[in-house]
Structure formats: structure tokens, C-alpha cells
Amino acid sequence: MTVQRREHFRIEYPGEERAILFLNSIQFMIIDLSQSGIRFLSPDHLPQLGQIFMIKVIMLHGYQHLTRAKVVRLHNNEVMLTMQHHINRVQIDLEEEYLFQRYGQFRSAPEY
């Protein structure tokens, strides 16, 4: 059995408040986010594996990130994207601090 190692720390958003993804002018709520990837729920339609989009991420602390992203995984109604230009770690840390201030302890997955 092969263990998949994550390259970057991943923030799992609480159900109450989530960062937003704009993909083809459609808004999606982000399930989790790292410097290099995004997982979101798409209940109405799923893109094709390998498809590339221009995306905009709006994080809760106000930072906006515009880049190209590729669909790398589809599972049920969840879509996983990898971003061409990664989000700076400082912005991830600021997002984590925002969530900690609002919600105290929240779930996250450290890099390993």
C-alpha cells in the first residue's frame, strides 16, 4: 500500500464559513485549501479530469488569488484542483490565524 504524502499544509474549513472559489463565473464553497490545491463540492455538474480553468480564490481574511488550475481528482461530488501558481505560505498562515480567532480549534491536516 502506497502512502500519498501531501506537499503542503492543508486547511479544512468549518461548515459555518468557507473560502470561495470562482470557476467559469460560478461560485463554489471550498472544503479545504493548501498552497497548491483546492477541494470543493460541485453538486450540479462535474468538470472533466485534466480540464484546466482560470480560477479566483477569495480567502476569508480577504486575500484573493488568481491562477490557472487543473482538475486532478473527482470523487462523488468533490473536485480536487492543483494550482499553477501556488498561494504564498504567509497567506495560508493568515487564513489559519483568522479561523483560529473565529472558531478556536479547527481541523487541519499538517504536511507529512
Strand count, sense and barrel status of the largest sheet are: 6 strands, antiparallel, barrel
Overall mean confidence score, pLDDT: 87
Distance between the termini: 17 Å
How large is the radius of gyration? 13 Å
User: Which second-level CATH architecture applies?
Assistant: Beta Barrel
Q: In which range does the helix fraction lie?
A: 10-25%
Count of alpha/pi helices: 1
Structural class: mainly beta
- Going across the biggest sheet, name each strand in turn: 2-3-4-7-6-5
Give the tally of structural domains.
1
Give a count of the beta strands, DSSP E runs of length 2 or more.
8
CATH class reads Mainly Beta
Backbone shape: globular
The CATH topology, please?
Answer: Thrombin, subunit H
Multimeric state: single chain
User: Which percent band covers the strand fraction?
Assistant: 35-45%
Order of helices and strands: EEEEEEEHE
What attributes characterize this protein structure?
112 residues; mainly beta; Thrombin, subunit H; six-stranded antiparallel β-barrel; 1 helix; globular
Polypeptide structure, described:
The protein contains 1 helix and 8 strands, in the order E-E-E-E-E-E-E-H-E. The longest helix has 15 residues, at 89-103. It has a 6-stranded antiparallel beta barrel with strand order 2-3-4-7-6-5. 13% of the residues lie in helices and 43% in strands. With 112 residues, it is mainly β. The two termini are 17 Å apart. It has one helix at residues 89-103; strands spanning 10-12, 20-23, 26-34, 37-41, 52-58, 64-75, 78-83, 108-109. The model is unreliable at 1-5 (pLDDT under 50). It has a single domain, classed as Beta Barrel (Thrombin, subunit H). The radius of gyration is 13 Å and the shape is globular.
